[in-house]
Design goal:
Layout lengths: L6 E5 L3 H11 L4 E5 L2 H10 L4 E4 L8 H11 L5 E6 L3 H9 L4 E5 L3 H32 L9 H13 L6 E4 L6 H10 L8 E5 L5 H9 L16 H4 L4 E5 L6 H13 L1 E2 L8 E2 L3 E6 L3 H6 L5 H7 L2 E4 L10 H16 L5 E2 L1 H9 L5 H15 L4 E2 L4
Parallel strand pairs: 1-2, 1-3, 3-4, 4-5, 6-11, 6-12, 7-8, 8-11, 13-14
Antiparallel strand pairs: 9-10
Helix pairs in contact: 2-3, 13-15
Amino acid sequence: MPKNKPKILIIEDEDVMQQTLKSILKRDYDPRPVDSGFIGVEEVKKGDYSTILLDLCLPKMDGVETLKKIKEVDKNIPIIIVSASKDIKSAVECMKLSAFDYVSKPFEVDELLAVIEKAQKLFDLQRENNYLKESLKEATRYSDLIGESEKIKKLREMIKSIAPTPSTVLITGESGSGKEIVAKEIHANSTRSNQPFIAINCAAIPENLLESELFGHERGSFTGAVERRIGKFELANYGTLFLDEIGCMSGAMQSKLLRVLEERTIQRVGGNTPISIDVRIIAATNIDFEKEISEKRFRQDLFYRLNVIPVALAPLRERKEDIPLFVEYFIGKFNAVLNKKVKGISPEALAQLINYPFPGNVRELQNLIERAVVLCGGNMIKAVF
């Protein structure tokens, strides 16, 4: 039998009906009969079936339960109920459980084939959509990590390795070097990508409010707490929490964060109930940890908890070959935002940028290009300073 024929799983306990369905389908399909729901579910786990024909009157595990189990394995595979009219109540229940269609026994061959053809078209469409989604995801993967320098190439490879893991990541680098972009790329390429990515800048929030921001609070727990508030940890549950500028945390907050990392539970301010959390932590800072630890401003045990996977970002001045790519990207971005039509930058202006040390890194370059696009009177940027 040709290997390219779509495989159809027949879950039917009657031998005569199995043979009937096989003879009807064998010209255009590759029918595979099994006589129980248990075996059918195991077959689906192996994959490669495009449609399922399911009888409702099965021994031990009936058709309704079989359908539920199959949907747990593959929620998209089309399932056609082929059963006697006396099973109509169960058939209705199956339709509510997202069965594709219902064909009653005895059936007209043409009717059955028409329903199978529709199911096959749905399967092909879903497969094509999945392919397009994966292609788009691959095309946009690491899209914000602009550059072709060796340092950026190594960073992309590192993200590819660490993203699928649940391990805590500590990103270090100068201000403006793109630490949050890297954190987002790690999240986007992880198994948590469909869950929340929540970011908080620990340096931007007063110490007396940071605990409430992170852990939430109960109503009446302090002056102004007029209602319960969910904190960043709970908002990020099952996803990723990005703790930017973590080096600015007070000693008291460091102790509380350490306890959360050790116990994987939080407690809202004013609350008494521990709340379990499943959150991946990505922290970032521009401080010198060795100095901060030696001067007792940062807890060494917390550093060890955070520094499971260290990621060090190079400053822009150490990857100057990436500057032309950033310039091209930012010109396109600000053309769209500002409704401008700047086509490029002069060699002299680009040379100025390449020779500039960029203490503010990529953020400073972005601001320079935005200003240059705004002030550009023609279609070419001729000066940036």
